[in-house]
User: Fold this.
Amino acid sequence: MADILTRTDVERIAALARLELTGDETALFAAQLTAILAYADQVQQVDTTAVEPAALTASGPGGRDDDLEPSLDREAVLGQAPAADRATGLFKVPRVLGS
Assistant:
């Protein structure tokens, strides 16, 4: 059985996600997250030994066959980027975390 999430657990998760929760939201989310974890635990208990792995694959029954296409030219794409490091072949993007 999944562990019960406490208000403290939810407050810690909210802080990591940079969410501000009210007391009512914290209690609600604690109950909801506990129910989700209990359901995930229930799903893990299902016997799947008779289930064939990868029953549907991209080229199998019900799947699709994709045509392979060449990717975009790296130099052309990097040349159109507002900021790119051609030496490493990477795009430079603005910092999002810790700003």
In short: The beta strands are 84-85, 90-91. The first strand starts at residue 84 and ends at 85. The mean pLDDT is 85.
